[in-house]
Structures are given as C-alpha cells and as structure tokens.
Design brief:
transferase; mainly alpha; 297 residues; Tetracycline Repressor, domain 2; globular; membrane
Length: 297
C-alpha cells in the first residue's frame, strides 16, 4: 500500500508532523515561570508542563495544516504534502492534542489552570490559522511562549514572573521573524535584528538576576547558561548576517529554537532554582541530536 493510500498516519509520521523532539524546549518555560513565581517543583508544575507540550504539538500540526499548499511546492517532503498524513488527520491530531492540553491543565491546577491554558490554546490556533503571515505573527508567537512562562508561575505568581515571560517572548519574536525566510533566504537586516534581540535577551536576563537578589551561586549559574545561550544563538545568527542564504537562515532558526533551553535555564537559575535549571540545560545536547533526525522547523 502506498503512503497516499494509508488510512491512518503512522506514529513516526505523526512525530514528524508535530516536531516531537522540539517539545523538549517547552517544559523550561514552565519551570522558569515556577521559579520566578516562587513555586516549588511539584506534580502540578509537571502537569502544567505536560499541558504546554500538548498545546505546542497541536500548534505544530496546525502549522503544517495551514501551510500544506505552500509546502507542496517548497517542502514536498513534509508529512501532509507527501501524503503520509491527510489534512483531516492533521486537524484531528491538533484538536485532540488541544483537548489533552486543556484536560492536563485542569488535572494540574483545577479550573484555575484554564485561566492561562485557554488563552494559550486560542493564541496557538489564531497564530496558525490567521496571524502567521501577518505583521502580528511574531508577536503572537511571543505571547504564546510568554503565556507558557506565566502558566508555570500559577495563580498569585504571575506578577513576579512577568520579567521572565518578557525575556522568553523577546527571544521567541526574534526566532519567529527569522523563520519567515527559511526557504527564500533573508535580507541581512533580518538576522541582524535577531542578533540584536538575542543580545537584549542576554542583558535582560542579567537584570532579572539582579532584581531577584540572587545568591552568588545562582548568579554564576545564570551567567554560565546565558553565555551558552548567547554563544549558540549569536554565532548562528552572525553567520546568517554574513551569508543570509536559506540554509544559513534555517540553521539560525534551529539554533534559536534550541537556544531557548539555556535561556530558560538562565532565568530559572536567576530566580534561585539552580537544581531545576540543571536538567533544562542538560537536555540541550539531546534536543540538538534529535533535531538532526526530526527537523525542529
């Protein structure tokens, strides 16, 4: 039976559709928010992280559903244009993952969990189906990631987590803006702007550490993770500035996606939660390795 005749998508094809390994970049948002909000690492925090992962995967499925006609020309190897996943199946997968994300939010924190999860789901669907190709696209994605951080902070902790959410949102906006040029290549100003925004995120993270009055150990860990972030993202973005071809832009986008992890670790350490920051940073090599097998973009 040929791939186009398969009645149901195979699990490996679903994994490609939702960019399964890229979900490793999501729990750190929630952990950074929990640390900033003064919340310990509990089952509720882990449940919130699982909810955010489901909503992230839903967004990836919706992304390919919305882009299927463009992908048929530019990226025919993707699951939908290649016939491995039908549009109806992609919609069903996105819907199921959205419901799972909302259910996990309720399981983690009761109905209060929906205070952030429902707007987050709305932003995810709105971005993919309406805002992606508009000027508001990068801002919408930034809001989605910022809401992830605030979800981790939970009720009562959102005010203290706003700075961390803003830093994550800034980084996300830079990566999203650059991702629009993955196929065509970019004007030099686009990766240049991303490089400036990465520098701003690094500086803002140091300011967050100072604001929290972190201990020396926490500040040292924050500085280390910030250096990893600046080095990994900045190097790829600088290369894209010098040669803004499509392959270099794609590498910079992938570096930006994975760069969220040391940034999250830095923010988590800045809030005094070095033990929670360590596994976020430690997962970076795994995310990069898996990213070579299933593209995160």
């Amino acid at each position: 039976m040929s791939p186009r005749q398969q009645p149901l998508p195979r699990l490996p094809d679903i994994a490609r559709l939702v960019r399964a390994p890229a979900a490793l970049t999501v729990p750190g948002d929630v952990l950074a928010g929990a640390a900033a909000g003064g919340r310990p690492l509990t089952a509720a925090t882990l449940g919130t992280a699982a909810s955010s992962v489901c909503l992230y995967w839903a967004g990836m499925a919706l992304n390919d559903l919305a882009d299927r006609e463009v992908d048929a020309v530019e990226r025919p190897e993707r699951p939908i244009p290649s016939g491995l996943v039908s549009p109806a199946a992609a919609l069903a997968i996105a819907s199921g993952l959205t419901l799972a994300g909302l259910a996990l939010a309720v399981a983690a924190r009761g109905r209060r969990g929906l205070v952030v999860a429902v707007p987050l789901a709305g932003v995810v669907w709105g971005y993919d189906l309406a805002l992606k190709q508009t000027a508001a696209g990068p801002a919408a994605m930034a809001v989605a990631r910022a809401l992830d951080v605030l979800a981790g902070a939970g009720p009562g902790g959102t005010g203290r987590a706003l700075a961390a959410a803003a830093v994550v949102g800034l980084h996300t906006a830079s990566v999203t803006g650059l991702s629009r040029y993955e196929v065509s290549g970019a004007p030099r100003s686009v990766p240049g702007a991303a490089l400036v925004m990465s520098a701003m995120a690094t500086t803002a993270t140091a300011a967050v550490a100072g604001r929290h009055g972190s201990r020396r150990r926490d500040r040292a860990a924050c500085a280390l993770f910030s250096a990893v972030y600046a080095g990994s993202c900045g190097r790829a973005q600088w290369t894209a500035v010098r040669s803004p071809s499509a392959p270099q832009v794609r590498r910079a986008v992938a570096a930006g996606i994975h760069g969220l992890m040391p940034l999250q670790a830095a923010l988590t350490a800045a809030a005094g939660s070095v033990p929670a920051a360590l596994p976020i940073a430690a997962a970076l090599p795994l995310a990069r390795w898996l990213g070579r097998k299933v593209s995160p973009t």
